[in-house]
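My current task is to audit a protein record that another person submitted. Please read both lines and tell me whether the tokens look consistent with the sequence. Do not assume that whoever made the record got everything right. I have pasted the whole thing underneath without changing anything:

===
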Amino acid sequence: MYQLLIKRIKEKRSLENLDDEFIKEYIDNYFRDNPKIKKILERHPKKEKSKEFKRITKQIRNELNRIYGIFKLNKNLTLESHKSTKERTNIYPYIYKKIFSITGEPKRILDISCGLNPLSYKYLGYKPYYIATELTKKDCEVLRYYFKKENINGNVLQINLLKQNKFPNADIAFLFKILDIIKDKKLVENIIKDLSVKYIVVSFSLIDIKGKKMNYPLQGWFQRMLKRLNLKYILIKEENEIFYVIKKD
């Protein structure tokens, strides 16, 4: 049953690179919350024809696509290839200057769930050691290809941000447009607490998926969390994105 569900879920092109084990975790979570549906499917003679099978396939596809589908990478990489980095293209030449005027120039950068952001390496203004993390093996391979092609001094790690992780040490960690899609805010808090860095830069989009300005762009839940953790921060607000530059130590 699992293999059939995984196969159908991965028929959506934006999800085809996901590791089977990662999808299985979502199916397990779904069945944990909906044990009756699991029992119905286990007994159903034609599982794929059942409304339960179609429902779980659709729901898990939607959830995975919300979290991962927008970050799918390929070897024909440009900053314009993805919505997040395309929106940031105009500010790349100076946004790092603004950030580093606060943090100083970090020797080691950790870019978590980076998407296409490593393509902005040339805008850093110097050549630090750059650690990029992504979710799938395929996307990590694509990033390694890019690192080698551009002679970037660094490393690419496969890390599932939705699990508790031990991240490598660095001077600064980037979490660009990623924390707001994590439903478990306790996990977000643990990520912030566990990062062994001097500074964390977290960004949130100021526009929604339809291109409209958000009603509550400052992410009040995140500000309350930082206050609870007694972490100081400086805001950098651009037209479409806001950056929290957080002093960790």
